[in-house]
Amino acid sequence: MKPKLILGLSGGVDSAVSAALLRESYDVHCVFLDIGLGGGGDAEALADRLGLPFHSVDIRAELEHFVCADFAREYLAGRTPLPCARCNPLVKFPALGRVGEQVGAEFIATGHYARVTAGPDGRMLLRKGQPANDQSYMLSRLTQALLRHIVFPLGGYEKVQVRALAEEMGLFVAHKPDSMEICFIPDGDYAAWLDRRGPTPPPGNFIDGEGRVLGRHLGIHHYTIGQGRGLGVSGPHRYFVSSLDPEHNTVTLSDGSDLMADRVLCSRPNWIAMDALDGPMEVTVRLRHSRTEAPGVIRPLERGGVDVLLDTPARAPTPGQLAVFYQGDVVIGSAWIERSLSL
User: Residue 183 catalytic?
Assistant: First the structure.
């Protein structure tokens, strides 16, 4: 008898191919996580096409509590949130796990491009997927308790290979466009979403480092550290957002030379490959959802924080984003960026 597995089926090509691959080895039950914006039709049609049981679960309340409310608070506090990294450990995988408990399934799968393997000490290790599509950054808040049950069938594939497989399998989503980055903001206009949710900060002043007024901004929630487009301010050089001050409702602009930092202070680490950081460790670091990594050293701080010392300065480490630490293709852990410094 095949072991039971719960698969998060979104209706996109990644989860569709995952379902087709997994049914060879598992008794797959497909679950659509409903956030109230539709999309379940494609998922149900795919499950029917593949002859797999289908469930739909409403997660709107959990998404609001753990992700949407935090997203709004962070932007209004002058930070730049990372909703997917919060959703995975707090909403998505727990919701799939609850369905698993109901049907007696031990395993949970999604179409993420990453891998999970067992380490020599029995810990589960989160590893990078193939370089072009690696999603380990957004999964770096997963815990050992979750990783022990997770299967990522696409960890060894590139996206182009997955689309080719979907076409070979005759899946109607083979050429369906990739989903939006923030699922609960389908048009991608997060500032308008915040305005509709309200209240949001009023317009205020753009200032330079000396406090001189350079122009008017639309509200601090329209901007993020390092932004250089859509500012509408002219001057002797191109301007970039250098800092946000919610208390005084100002956005400081600079020529960008002050955005480089080689020290990043982080909080609330999630260690995956070890229990805790008890001394300096050489790693590579990702400071945003891209494939760019920088070598450096992480050191423990009091109260559980992490001090990240980069060998080469990085541009605009942004409060509210994640610093993710790697050794080779293994995710050591991650921590939330609080502020950056130039040594």
Answer: yes
Q: Which residues are annotated as a binding site?
A: 8-15, 33, 111
How many other β-carbons are positioned within 10 Å of the β-carbon of residue 91?
A: 21
As given in the structure block, the two tokens for residue 123 are 């810990």
Q: Distance from CA of residue 333 to its chain's centroid? A: 14
pLDDT value of position 38: 84
Query: Which residue(s) pair with 327 in the sheet?
Result: 330
pLDDT for residue 342:
81
Which contacts qualify for 125-128: CB closer than 8 Å, 24 or more apart?
Answer: 125/272, 125/273, 125/330, 125/331, 126/272, 126/273, 126/330, 126/331, 127/155, 127/329, 127/330, 127/331, 128/326, 128/329, 128/331
Residues 291, 329 contacting (CB under 8 angstroms): no
Three-state SS letters, 84-140 = HHHHHHHHHHHHHHHHHHHHCCCEEECCCCEEEEECCCCCEEEEECCCCCCCCHHHC
Provide the annotated binding site for ATP: 8-15, 33, 111
Q: What is the pLDDT of residues 284-311, one digit of tens each?
A: 999 987 778 999 999 999 889 999 999 9
ω into 317 cis (within 30 of 0): no
Measured distance CA(2)–CA(111) in Å, rounded:
20
Please give the helix or strand (H or E) that residue 260 lies within, else none.
strand 260-271
CA 220, CA 218: separation in Å to the nearest integer?
Answer: 7
Our answer to whether residue 84 is catalytic in this structure is no
Among candidate residues 30, 68, 84, 87, the one labeled active-site is: 87
**Packed helices 190-197 and 69-76: angle between N→C axes, nearest 10 degrees:** 100
Per-residue pLDDT reduced to its tens digit, 95-115: 999 999 999 999 999 999 999
- Strand 124-128 and strand 306-315: pairing? unpaired
Taken in order of first residue, the domains within the chain and their CATH numbers are 4-169 (3.40.50.620), 201-255 (2.30.30.280), 259-341 (2.40.30.10)
Q: Point out the catalytic residue in the list 68, 84, 183, 266.
A: 183
**Predicted TM-score of the model (pTM):** 0.94
> How confident is the model over 209-258, as pLDDT tens digits?
999 999 999 999 999 999 999 999 998 899 999 999 999 999 999 999 99
